[in-house]
Amino acid sequence: MNNFPALVLNADFRPLNYFPLSLWCWQDAVKAVFLSRVNVVSEYERLVRSPSHAMRLPSVIALKQYVPTSRRPAFTRFNVFLRDAFACQYCGEQLAAEHLTFDHVVPRVAGGKTVWTNVVAACEPCNLSKAHKLPAESGMYPLRFPYEPSAHELQKNGRAFPPNHLHESWRDFLYWDTELEPF
What we know:
Layout: E1 6-9, E2 23-24, H1 26-34, E3 38-49, E4 54-63, H2 77-83, E5 100-104, E6 119-123, H3 124-130, H4 135-138, H5 151-159, H6 171-174
Parallel strand pairs: 1-4
Antiparallel strand pairs: 1-2, 3-4, 5-6
């Protein structure tokens, strides 16, 4: 039964989040349906029953009230990795989040701050090689200098990294605003 998450859409039918994808477990989705907080957009074939009711599990739900998205993304390790497309900004190798660290372009020992404009994703070998040196001292410059991304940019980047589980009923809502290929 745990393999039936529901994709959660905002009232404008866009996912609340792309990465991590906004998913609710089937129990929370069913509860929200009964509390009239969401509209069911699509359903699984799987039924759940109570003594007085049977219903198909929702696969896509839309909130009835619009939840405004934050204009400025939170400064988190994960969002730095997402901004940098999960790639080391020194060697360019793309890695899973658990194999990345972040590097201060201007090291903290040299007065560098832990802010969007001074932190980049780095693999461990590059981070160790750069150590506590300035780019000019180490000869290592980021492929892209750090900057504060917009929430829209992080959402766009998140679409490039689909989750392991994508139910077919979700595809239209996850990629509805991508450009179509002519054929």
